[in-house]
Amino acid sequence: MVRHFTFIIFVVLGFLQGCAPVEEKTEEMDKEEEKPVEKVDQHSFAIPEEAVMTFLDLYIEVDFSEKVIKGTAKITFENHSSNRLFLDTKGLFIESVKVGDREVKFTLHEEIPFMGSALEIEIDTFTNVVEVNYKTSADAPALQWLSAAQTSGKRHPFLFTQSQAILARSWVPCQDSPGIRFPYSATVTVPKNLMALMSAENPQEKNDSGIYHFKMSKPIPAYLLALAVGDIDFKSLGSRTGVYAEPSMLKKSADEFEDLEKMLTAAEKLYGPYKWGRYDLIVLPPSFPFGGMENPRLTFATPTIIAGDKSLTSLVAHELAHSWSGNLVTNATWDDFWLNEGFTVYFENRIMEEVYGKEIAKMLSLISYQDLQAEMEGMNYSEDTRLKLNLKGRDPDDGMTSIAYDKGYYFLKLIEETVGRENWDAFLNQYFSEKEFQAISTEDFLAYLKENLLDKHPGAEEKLKINKWVYSAGLPENCPVIQSDKFEKVEMEIVKFMDGEKARNLNTNKWTYQQWVHFIRKLSDSVSISQMSELDLAFHFTNTGNNEVLFEWLMLAVKKEYKPAYPKMEYFLKSVGRRKFIAPLYKAMAENPAQINLGKRIYKQAKSNYHFVAVNTIDTYFSEQ
Ligand code: BES
Ligand code: ZN
After folding, report:
1. pLDDT of residue 611
2. Measured between alpha carbons, how far is 585 from 63 in angstroms, rounded to an integer?
3. What is the spatial distance between Cα 441 and Cα 435, in angstroms, rounded to a whole number?
4. Which of 180, 224, 181, 164 is nearest to 47 (CA)?
5. What percent of the chain shows pLDDT beyond 90?
């Protein structure tokens, strides 16, 4: 007991002191459980070897006036004869903890930056259920409370959660580690005119009581706990698919995601049966900080992918793919994040190829390559450009760069090219089915890959240079090269334009949005303001309805100080909260002395619309000045 207490102090101090003592956790667990080192999650206070959650039963009320969630989390766990249970919390007020009718003692340990506070509950060695009565804080980072004015209908407030990576603990006391899975049920009370949805079996209509019951019968990690509450309607898209949105967004959303059922069928054809029953989407208000979030059974999506022509639905293919890579086979710790995202980008690309053809898939691969180059450079080829990360003592959000996505993708693409697509696909099918509902570390995956694929292909292992990809910074020289005729055409038109051809005479017939993105990215650094005006006049970039194209154009506008696009940029920054779009624009302004004040002014006015994770990123740009 005493030894254990010192041990937790070590863990706590470790985070305060740049972390050397955190290794204590690793070493102790190794000795006790012979668990591989790499599986120890440094971002959770849970000690699963002692007591590990097996079920969550949630009874909560959503209070819009106080901006809090309050209620009870009834936690069932497997107790390995321990007299204490550790849960993760962040900013939670713990009112009481009960075992049956009896209140038990608990300690809420000191708050550690970004980690939150360990909740240590005193139990008997045979206890296996506790009830935690709690309330969230008004600034819980997982929760974004929107006023009616911040919604598209303007009449009702809205709430959504974002639990990944380690924010679930700020709205549910739980063991918030990707290696710990549990099914859950929930009873959620909301204002009578609103609907509640979760990452679970969902209602398709509002009810009169404002009380909703949920069940997720498959075990999921805490980062996939999700809740959305608002004035929401549903429209079916196929036998297993549908879309939820605010009423004024529903028709547009349903039209945009018309191909959802087709994508689901394509995904199953590639990598085996979909294990979660239904697959629905919810289109959230524009302040949602991500493009999408793969909450099981109900992907959360940004409205910025509604372009009116289904051109941005690769994002849906991505979130759908997570139903296998991520939700079924899950990264063991946030250091293994590439196992979630790299596989998902690969799978997304295969779905896109299946549904929309090879050319589109190749263009997406090339955009991913460009993103990768830019990210590597921006990160100075630091250690964080390795696939296997070391986030010990840091906020896992720091490791969530496009390295995991794009370098991960190219590594898997290389394996595909090395062993042949047919063998690779067979391997992936087997991997997803044998490892379903399990947490996998990078090392687990590499061992499995060797045994089940590489050993059957002599020479493959040497060719891949696995250690370079996984454990070294930068991009290995054997990275696959993708060629796209459509992008080559774009490059030819750029040459013509730079040689003096009029913009309106360029051959841009039937270009896809990926071609436009490529066009803007590739415009030489020497493009002049007057050339930008000419392009804008011919192609209406400042007024495009495609947000990917708009974003590239606004980035160029900031770089070149092309002022005619500034009112649009300001409007965009004030109406959208998607971090991928807004953070680079602010960063570009912050880095240019001539524009930093503009950036600061807009940020000050827009900030209240942004989610915690976006603010957390953007604050760093302006505070360093
Ligand atoms: N799971 C991620 C979002 C995420 C990652 C949230 C890490 C919190 C921490 C999601 O699947 C994702 O990758 N979204 C991307 C879109 C995708 C098409 C690359 C996004 O939001 O931009
Ligand atoms: Zn993803």
Report:
1. 95
2. 35
3. 12
4. 180
5. 92
CA–CA separation, 55 and 220 (whole Å): 10
pLDDT value, residue 344: 98
Given this model, what pLDDT does residue 312 score? 97
Indicate if the pLDDT at residue 97 is higher than 90. yes
In terms of DSSP H, where are the helices of 499-578? 513-522, 529-539, 547-560, 566-575
Q: Are 324 and 432 in contact (CB under 8 A)?
A: yes
SS3 523: coil
Return the amino acid letter for 349.
N
Ligand 1 centroid from CA 292, angstroms? 6
Q: Three-class SS string for 468-510?
A: HHHHCCCCCCCCCCCCCHHHHHHHHHHHHHHCCCCHHHCCCCC
pLDDT at 319: 98
Return contacts of 361-367, CB within 8 angstroms, 24+ apart. Answer: 362/482, 362/483, 362/484, 362/486, 363/484, 363/486, 363/487, 363/512, 363/514, 363/515, 363/518, 364/314, 364/514, 365/409, 365/413, 365/482, 366/482, 366/484, 366/487, 366/518, 367/514, 367/517, 367/518
**How far are the Cα atoms of 400, 436, 440, 452, 574 from residue 448, in angstroms, in the given order?**
25, 14, 10, 6, 47
534 catalytically annotated = no
Residue of 295, 316, 325, 341 best suited for mutating to test ligand 1, as the one with most atoms within 8 Å of CB: 341
Cα 322 to averaged position of ligand 2 atoms, centre (Å):
7
pLDDT digits (tens, 9 = 90+) for 284-318: 999 999 999 999 999 999 999 999 999 999 999 99
Alpha helices in 257-336, H assignment, sequence order: 260-271, 314-321
Q: What is the pLDDT of residue 32?
A: 39
Which atom of ligand 1 is least distant from the CA of 302? Answer: 21
d(CA 582, CA 359): 29
What's the half-sphere exposure (Cβ side, CA atoms, 13 Å) at 221? Answer: 31
Q: Dump the DSSP string for 200-255.
A: SS--SS--SS-EEEEEEEEEEEGGG--EEEES-EEEE-SSSEEEEE-HHHHHHHHH
Q: How far apart are CA 37 and CA 18, in angstroms?
A: 19
Please give the structure tokens belonging to residue 40. 């120890």
The encoded tokens of residue 542 equal 């400042």
290 lines ligand 1 (CB under 6 A): yes
Residue identifier of the C-alpha nearest atom 2 of ligand 1: 293
Is-contact 174 192, C-beta < 8 A?
Answer: no
Residues 6+ apart with CB under 8 A from 213: 185, 186, 187
pLDDT digit string, tens, across residues 503-521: 999 999 999 999 999 999 9
CB crowding 236-249: b at 16 or more within 10 Å, else e:
ebbebbbbbbbeeb
**405 is annotated as an active-site residue:** yes
> Is residue 177 lining ligand 1, measured as CB closer than 6 Å?
no
Q: How far apart are alpha carbons 351 and 349 in whole angstroms?
A: 5
Q: Is the CB of 315 under 6 A from ligand 1?
A: yes
**Strand (E) or helix (H) holding 68:** strand 68-79
Best residue among 144, 160, 170, 293 to mutate for probing ligand 1, ranked by most atoms within 8 Å of CB = 293
- CA 469, 39, 297: angle at the middle one, nearest 5? 85
Looking up tokens 């939820």, which residue turns up?
244
Q: Is the pLDDT of residue 332 over 50?
A: yes
Give the separation between CA 188 and CA 201, rounded to whole angstroms.
13
